[in-house]
Amino acid sequence: MSETILEIVGLSKVYAGGHKALDSVDLTIKQGEIFALLGPNGAGKTTLIGAVCGLVRPTAGTIRAFGDDLSQNWRSARARIGLVPQELATDMFEQVERSVAYSRGLFGLAPNATRIEEILRSLSLWEKRSEQIRALSGGMKRRVLIAKALAHEPDLLFLDEPTAGVDVELRRDMWKLIGAMRELGVTIILTTHYIEEAEEMADRVGIIRDGKILMIDNKAAMMRRLGRTEAAIVLASKQSQLPASIAALPVHLSDDGMEIIYRGGDGSGKGKAEVAELTKALTFAGIDYVGIDIKESSLEDIFVDLVEQREGESA
């Protein structure tokens, strides 16, 4: 079983104006995993990262990283943590290579030109090493932030909206890079509002809203538990009601009587089996249909449903 390298218990943050950015958050991260934290803007994602990285002072709760309580022994644990912030805040007039090397020195590590070159090459920045950061594109500037975070060879890396503002091609390149970092043993926590990033890369997914964790689970388990199948069966002729054998299934007749709408399943294939059963029942009942449109729910559907459900509860 993988070692726990980050344990957060009862973490809360209330700002001076009374805004509660984090509300009793519990989170455990295992070594070597990629964990994606999803949530709308203002959900508390960046505050959570800031608390772990020493940028935000928690109001309550404990944070343990690599076995150290960060309130007691912050410096040694922080040296093993890297952060790629959401904002492109860096010295725009500094050269790329010097900026990355300086970040390594901030953590008390000896200069290592070979390591800096490896990082820059892995991020396709080596050819830009002598350029001022201000001359780079937005995507390249974000790569510099990643290089700076990797300069001190962290064991735990936070990526706060790592692909915000970059095009699709660069986004996919960064996905590959994150996978390569995991191969090197780096544990990665990323926040994102691009649901496909979580689907593509994460081992586990957490959903946060209004400072509260709504759910944390393995992607596959989340799909099994909250996934569903939706199907619209277009009928050859208008129906006024459904036979009892069909009405017993999770279906309803459209207002115009021309479609049977199915919603059911659990993300494990049960839904497709029930749709097949439904079509057999229609044939047996002598009801002709001319088309079927089936859709399996995505992680995005689950995310939207959870957030909207919580919004409804708090309204």
TrEMBL record:
PROSITE patterns attached to this UniProt entry: ABC_TRANSPORTER_1 (PS00211), ABC_TRANSPORTER_2 (PS50893)
Pfam families: ABC_tran (PF00005)
A GO MF term: ATP hydrolysis activity
Signal peptide: none
SUPFAM superfamilies documented for this protein: P-loop containing nucleoside triphosphate hydrolases
Transport in keyword set: yes
Protein name (database record): ATP-binding cassette domain-containing protein
Lineage of source species: Bacteria, Pseudomonadati, Pseudomonadota, Alphaproteobacteria, Sphingomonadales
